[in-house]
Amino acid sequence: xxxxxxxxxxxxxxxxxxxxxxxxxxxxxxxxxxxxxxxxxxxxxxxxxxxxxxxxxxxxxxxxxxxxxxxxxxxxxxxxxxxxxxxxxxxxxxxxxxxxxxxxxxxxxxxxxxxxxxxxxxxxxxxxxxxxxxxxxxxxxxxxxxxxxxxxxxxxxxxxxxxxxxxxxxxxxxxxxxxxxxxxxxxxxxxxxxxxxxxxxxxxxxxxxxxxxxxxxxxxxxxxxxxxxxxxxxxxxxxxxxxxxxx
Length: 247
Fold this sequence. Notes:
This protein has helices spanning 18-21, 26-50, 62-66, 68-72, 90-103, 116-132, 135-181, 190-193, 197-202, 206-246, and strands spanning 3-4, 113-114. It is mostly helical. The longest helix is centred in the middle third of the chain and has 47 residues, at 135-181.
């Protein structure tokens, strides 16, 4: 974030009584303008201290316009009042002390200056982070439920394929046993003679059964791989969801 700071060092001219100085010409005009600016500055300080005034007359003089940020802006102000103990300057000393007493009652609450664009971006980031802290948790729960349903479906399909594989394996073993004991009608074993008619019909088509068995086996392997990958993904999302719930 871009932080901006300024330091104003202002040397205020002292108020001069024209009757004492005896100034004339250009110096008299300058003293008049200085006294007018200091009077306007006193009015600004009084308005700031009052707290009830809705208008601060910063624009009434060049001096108050320059000091606007220092007096009532986002700043900390330090003012030094110079007084003298001489009896000759009694009136000026009294006026300066009153001036300083009003100025010390100004209360400014300074904050670090930031670039408006950066501050706005920071606000939007906080808002998005706050919203993202709730929405993703709901999405993760729904995603995990969907993944769990998919895993259950894959497990059920895997069980069915396993049952079919076992059944085909039993039929294949029975067919191979009949072929081994076969060779003649007289040497046929009783178990082969008692073989169900459906199995004896399927025996000549052993090649087709083997091909189907291989296809089922390949399909089973694919499902197992998908099942394991879904399990890993679900475990990862579960860990992420736990982290979100903890934070």
